Amino acid sequence: MRTVEWHDGRVRMIDQRKLPWELVLVDYDDYRDVAQAITDMVIRGAPAIGAAAGFGMALAAFQCPANDKQEMLRYLEEAAALMKKARPTAVNLMWAVDRLLSVAARDDLSTPDEVREAMLAEAQKLADEDVAINKRMGEYGATLIKDGDTILHHCNTGALATVDWGTALGVIRTAHRQGKRIHVLLDETRPRLQGARLSAWELKQEGIPFDIIADNAAGHFMRTGQVNIVLVGSDRTAANGDVANKIGTYKLAVVAKENGIPFYPVVPTSTIDLNLASGDEIPIEERSPDEVRAPFGYAIVPDDYPARNPAFDVTPHRYVTGIVTENGIVYPPFDINLRRAVEGTLHEPR
Ligand code: MRU
Q1: How far is CA 20 from CA 86, 193, 294, in A?
Q2: For 127, phi and psi rounded to 5 degrees?
Q3: What is the pLDDT of residue 350?
Q4: What is the per-residue burial (b if ≥16 Cβ within 10 Å, else e) of 235-255?
Q5: With a 6 A CB cut-off, is 249 part of the ligand 1 pocket?
Q6: Helices marked H in 200-347 — which ranges?
Q7: Is 149 designated active site?
Q8: Residues near 216 by beta carbon (within 8 Å), at least 6 away in sequence
Q9: pLDDT at residue 90 greater than cutoff 90
Q10: Four-residue CA torsion sign, 56, 59, 61, 67
Q11: DSSP 211-242
């Protein structure tokens, strides 16, 4: 089952807020509800957000009552603006919306019906490509994993964070299917617990041995020699190799370096933002303090206690050993080699 798909003229997705207790599918027939679902984290994870936005834009085209193309483009521009506001950090959202808009603007499409069909085909292509890209990253990344390794992992980067397979968790899945005996330490990932709820759910289905650990325990496991490699995802990676990812990633990277443990983000090129020179320019989402005070409605403290809730942090590239992409593993100097990975020329002699 895919995390998000087009089903009978609607956008269907797994409601990730309900896992691991219940597997619930939700169908949307209004693009505004798709945008809201992204904001509310019914669907989350950078590539999954991108795919949902792609289908959401196709849905907008089918909802649009316009009879001529110019009128339709104006409607789609409005839909795009709303969709892009759903969450700020994962660049896949803006990338997918722009990709769908550029299809709509194609000169060879003259009627609204032609635009609708072409946009749906593009959204489907984007989703299919995501799965293929993850499998390629899985093959590259698995070369870093040795038989017997213990891998430390943060947040959820699996099938649920993508259309299927996963980024960092996709590497773990590939290594496991190659027959490598691995063990995974899953950071629970406060405050929304994507590691404990979602990554554990996925690894259990796949039969990959794991332990959930409190986020605070990661340093202990690294210092005491119980971690061989750290694998994480990214929501946006800047041109210099600075990596924005789920809050807490930065601490992991610093402690990994201190202990001589390799730290690899697994990042499709759709998550690399070459327009941003460094991670300082990446917008960091700050979510409701209620997620800290009362995770999933369970009040830890009174609701008038002040709290802060940045959803992401930036790991400076000096802590990054390498970045796994679908076009190969990128090593420093990142400012040169990331661009090559995006262009698909990483392995070509220059
Ligand atoms: O807030 P989320 O759950 O959308 O954050 C997700 C992550 O930070 C993932 O690690 C990231 O999207 C990359 S993995 C596909």
Answers
A1: 24, 11, 19
A2: -65, -45
A3: 57
A4: bbbbbbbbbbbbbbbbbbbbb
A5: no
A6: 200-206, 218-223, 249-258, 290-293, 334-343
A7: no
A8: none
A9: yes
A10: negative
A11: EEE-GGGHHHHHHTT--SEEEE--SEEETTS-
Residue 348: predicted pLDDT: 73
**Peptide bond connecting 191 to the previous residue in cis, omega within 30 degrees of 0:** yes
Pocket lining: 47 vs ligand 1, CB cutoff 6 Å: yes
Residue among 134, 235, 296 to mutate when testing ligand 1 (max atoms within 8 A of CB): 235
Closest by Cα among 243, 227, 258 to 312: 243
Measured from the CA of 48, which atom of ligand 1 is nearest? 15
Tokens of 62: 């089918």
Under DSSP, the state recorded for 269 is G
Please give the Cα distance from 34 to 42 (Å, whole number).
9
169-208 confidence digits (pLDDT tens): 999 999 999 999 999 999 999 999 999 999 999 999 999 9
For the record, the structure tokens of 326 come out as 């679908």
Going along the chain from its start, the domains and CATH numbers come out as 4-134 (1.20.120.420), 140-343 (3.40.50.10470)
Cα of 329 from ligand 1 centre, angstroms: 20
User: Dihedral of CA 301/303/308/311: which sign?
Assistant: positive
Q: Which helix (H) or strand (E) holds 26?
A: strand 25-28
Query: What is the separation of C-alpha 95 from the centre of its chain, rounded to a whole number of angstroms?
Result: 13
Residue 347: per-residue pLDDT: 80
Ligand 1 near 337 CB (within 6 A): no
- Is there a contact between 151 and 324 (Cβ–Cβ < 8 Å)? no
Region of 270 (left: φ > 0; alpha: ψ -120 to 50; beta: rest) is: alpha
Using omega within 30 degrees of 0 as the cis cutoff, is the peptide bond preceding 333 cis?
yes
**Contact between 167 and 141 (Cβ < 8 Å):** no
C-alpha distances in Å from residue 94, one per residue of 16, 82, 91, 316: 22, 11, 5, 23
